[in-house]
Design a protein that fits this description.
Length: 304
């Protein structure tokens, strides 16, 4: 089993990704760390604890950054896409569980040192927590097994701006630090995630499952697909952004990649743009192709 920490800003696709990971026996779920992003960090922590309770899974949750590394929020929260509560308005009551008593970045440092070369970090929100960990303790870089990042748009246009993808735009400086650190990293960006559409038809299977989890995921995902329809009329589904990062951690053969150095624009209207070049070091694996149908079937076979 591959030990993982998931770093999340729990909106709807994060929730789907957490369910997928919890139900995947290849992964040993060690902890979750939370970050601002789709919503505030406090809401991300709450939503993460809520999902874990619905999944019947006990995993510690460490709260992290509430804002980007340098200065104020550069983008709005994404309540129009993820709902007022971040879960498509499907949140029912407050979770009973409590967050653990250590900052996310400090937890990441401690855990990586405890299990050198073993930990996979699946980062599906802004990269602030990981950047903070690397800034505080650069010696962890060669000790991290691998980082799988949902973020960026290297060979395709952005989504939140013409240039940038939401997780990177939310904290371009953090992404720049992580990408330049030399850490072993796979970038699962819009290059591949927009090829993985979950259609509304699949939700009926979840509703028909007779399970509370199926109802919950169907309700929140319906909201998410509605937001996609508003943005891309006729699309008939939603991108499985964060779940694909989990899929790649389980089975790297779902994607193919190119080694590139990726720099991040940190200022101006193109802030958050991810620019790939093939010559310079350090290089990361930029996923450029995905076996979308095989991934979708794998995800559907696991998520509820
Ligand atoms: Ca996310």
């Amino acid at each position: 089993m591959k030990p993982i920490i998931m770093d999340v800003d729990t909106g709807i696709d994060d929730a789907l990704a957490i369910a997928y990971a919890v139900h995947s026996p290849e992964l040993e779920f060690i902890a979750l760390t939370t970050c601002f992003g789709n919503i505030t960090v406090e809401e991300a922590t709450r939503n993460t604890l809520f999902m874990l309770e619905k999944l019947g899974k006990s995993v510690p949750v460490y709260e992290g950054a509430g804002a980007p590394l340098f200065g104020k929020l550069k983008k709005r929260y994404a309540r129009h896409i993820h709902g007022e509560d971040g879960l498509g308005n499907a949140l029912r009551g407050e979770p009973q569980g409590q967050k653990s008593d250590l900052a996310a970045s400090d937890y990441i440092i401690r855990q990586v040192k405890e299990r050198p070369h073993e930990m996979t970090i699946i980062a599906v929100g802004p990269l602030t927590n990981l950047a903070l960990a690397i800034e505080k303790a650069p010696e962890i870089v060669p000790l991290i097994g691998e980082v799988v990042v949902m973020g960026g748009a290297v060979t395709v246009p952005g989504n939140i701006t013409p240039y940038g993808e939401a997780n990177i735009v939310a904290d371009p400086d953090a992404a720049a630090i992580v990408f330049a650190s030399g850490v072993r990293l796979k970038l699962v960006g819009l290059d591949v995630t927009l090829q993985t559409l979950l259609a509304s038809a699949h939700l009926q299977t979840w509703r028909n499952s007779g399970r509370e989890l199926g109802q919950l995921l169907a309700e929140m995902t319906e909201f998410y697909i509605g937001a996609y329809e508003a943005r891309y009329p006729g699309i008939g589904g939603c991108g499985l952004h964060d779940p694909l990062a989990v899929g790649v951690a389980i089975d790297p053969s779902l994607v193919s990649s190119e080694l590139m150095r990726v720099t991040v624009v940190t200022e101006g209207e193109a802030a958050g743009q991810t620019v790939g070049t093939s010559e310079d070091e350090p290089r990361i694996e930029v996923c450029t192709k995905v076996d979308a149908e095989r991934f979708l079937q794998h995800f559907l076979s696991r998520v509820i």
